[in-house]
Design brief:
Elements (H helix, E strand, L loop, with lengths): L1 E6 L2 E7 L4 E8 L4 E9 L11 E8 L4 E9 L11 E6 L7 E10 L13 E10 L1
Antiparallel strand pairs: 1-2, 2-9, 3-8, 4-7, 4-9, 5-6, 5-8
Length: 131
């Protein structure tokens, strides 16, 4: 679902993706292509118990998967995560190829017990741009 969300004073169109979620976006990567996206959790997650969300982005050509980005966001445990966190992912190695950009959200950080409480994950305004 696409929603408009204000995080830390910045409103952005976002995809609501509570974990576990997998979204695949087929794109032909331009020369000097980059993925520009922001990650965050809805404000109701900021002061409600939980251990956050693991955000991952990868590329698949149908034969293999390459993980390109991984970040744990926990606004309850880290006040610095109470905002949109900008992410830039270099896609230039896939220039000219049609690939699946795969956006995953997972419950909590690696190595900790699953805690799905208040995991209101958001992908903010994903787009492929030429930098």
């Amino acid at each position: 679902d696409a929603v408009d969300v204000d995080l830390g004073g910045e409103t952005m169109r976002a995809i609501y993706a509570p974990p576990p979620t997998r979204i695949t976006w087929k794109v032909t990567v331009p020369d000097d292509g980059w993925l520009k996206v922001s990650v965050g959790l809805k404000p109701e997650s900021w002061t409600a118990e939980g251990n956050g969300v693991l955000f991952l982005v990868g590329v698949s050509d149908g034969k293999r998967f390459d993980e390109l980005f991984r970040q744990h966001v926990n606004p309850f445990g880290n006040a610095g995560d109470r905002r949109w966190i900008p992410v830039w992912v270099d896609l230039s190695a896939y220039a000219g190829e049609e690939v699946g950009l795969i956006f995953n959200t997972r419950i909590g950080p690696d190595g900790q017990p699953d805690d799905p409480r208040n995991d209101h994950a958001l992908w903010g305004k994903p787009e492929v741009v030429v930098r």
